[in-house]
Amino acid sequence: MTTPSTQLSQLFADHWQAWMQYDPLFASMCGDHRYDDRLPSVSDTGVTAWRSQLQDFRKRQDAIPRAELSPADQLNYDIFARLLDVDIDELGHGYYRIPISRTAGFHLSLPDLPMLMSLENLRDYENYISRLQAIKTYFSENIELMRFGLQTGYLPPLDTLEGIEQGILPHILDNPEKSVFFSPFENFPSVITTGDRERLAHSAQEAIHTSVIPAYRLLLKFVQDEYRPAARPGIAASELPHGGEFYQSRIRYFTSLELTPEQVHATGQSEVVRIRAEMQSVMHKTGFKGDFRAFIEFLRTNPRFYAATPDELLKETALVLKRIDGELPRLFKTLPRLPYGIRPIPDFSAPGNTTAYYMPGAGDGTRAGYYYVNTYDLKSRPFYEIEALSLHEAVPGHHLQIALQQELTDLPNFRRFSGFTSFVEGWALYSERLGLEMGFYQDATSDFGRLSYEMWRACRLVVDTGMHALGWSRRQAIDFMLENTCSTELNIINEVDRYIAWPGQALAYKIGELKIRELRATAEKQLGERFNLREFHDVVLLAGAVPLGVLASRIQAWAEERARN
């Protein structure tokens, strides 16, 4: 018998299957290895067809009577509808026609293929080689997509392309064996015979020689001959086709709330004033004799705050992470089973990359999550930022939240492996503050570093809306962040260029964190001594990365039930 519940389950299954086929790289990340031999199709026609599929799924959903579903299914129904709506809206604005910048893009993400895929047997290696063979076609499709973007008004900002060669040139080599794409063939699993090893290594060399290296050459030529010359001098999203509507949709997409650029900007300015006062207070605790600007310059230039070698930076970070691990049970009832590791950001992408980032583990549990640390330009990686950064990117931030979400097997797959950026990044920023409750930031400079990171996220609200909607220049944004944070100029320039290339994403952090802190404060006031932080964190985390409005409803329901019992 077909019921509304079975209709909904079938809809979820059909959508998931279509998603896996549309994006085989995402499928690999989720632990679905059925399509490990292929790369996505990225033609404009293909993206348009995918958007049409999503619209068809949405129509199917509208035909299912929501009122006849259980409360759990109603929640799944609502979140699924929200995800479809934002994806349909996003694709409709056409921003996918600008897929690369100095700080992000397929040219930087594809070298992670060996870490993304399962490489345990002969078939896995053959799948990997098939993907290497497809890279030239994949790059060619992306180039055609960018050409179409240029024809239709989707011009990249020139500033986001300066230095992009640093992420391309390392892959144009005379010897395929020196390519990062060849790394899986240096150490094989024992189940692969000597004869197969030789054959596979030869096939990989051939694929790198005929597909990978020519692909990067094609991209380099296109960027230098066509893309950069056509780039626009401006930086604002509002300059793109229907730019005002596009940026408004970006705010909705990344915050999951209905906010205007002016509201976000004002919130950012207010937070900057509040955090600046706290930073002044912490500066006085250090005993520093001088004004705020002199203190920031002291932090940026004193050698004692910086590692002499990449290994020293990684070891210091690893020590902090191990200390954090020991404190987690005090604040959390439920922890993920999947472990995490630490790695340096690869040399080919480090110069234009952020200070650190997190790569989720495989959805099937066969690969750990990884916290990537940027060891390039060590004078830009101060020790006093390590605690806040590690709490954000690893635990209890991204790794704890994302790994735990992937292990919620009672949820539909779309909730286990996707979600809302304002929750994900809001949680990670909230986690930085949790360090205070875990006994970290005992050194005043480290606490200043925490506040500088919080200030950074507040500044993002100001500069992102400023640049994309309110007429700010790139230099104005850089100067604003130099004035208000203790981060180094290289970090700030890379970050500002990231905001230019990724409109709205930077808003998710502070907006999400403010909402989580607001909800916690309300629950603490309502429950008094009956408030339990470990239970509160379960309520926040055990439904996955939900919209902020859904999170508010969950916490309110939990607080009311706990108050009654």
Give a quick set of tags describing it.
mainly alpha, 565 residues, single chain, globular, three-stranded mixed sheet
Describe what this molecule looks like in 3D.
The protein has 565 residues and is mostly helical. The protein has a domain at 246-513. It is 61% helix and 2% strand. A 3-stranded mixed sheet has the order 1-3-2. Helix 1 runs antiparallel to helix 3, helix 3 runs antiparallel to helix 4 and helix 10 runs antiparallel to helix 17. The longest helix is centred in the middle third of the chain and has 37 residues, at 194-230. The mean pLDDT is 95.
Question: Main beta sheet: strand number and arrangement?
Answer: 3 strands, mixed
Strand arrangement, largest sheet? 1-3-2
- Helicity, in percent? 55-70%
Please provide the ordered H/E string of secondary-structure elements: HHHHHHHHHHHHEEEHHHHHHHHHH
How many strands in all? 3
Output the structural class.
mainly alpha
State the shape: globular
Write down the overall mean pLDDT. 95
For the termini, the CA-CA separation is 39 Å
Beta content comes to under 5%
- Give me the number of helical elements: 22
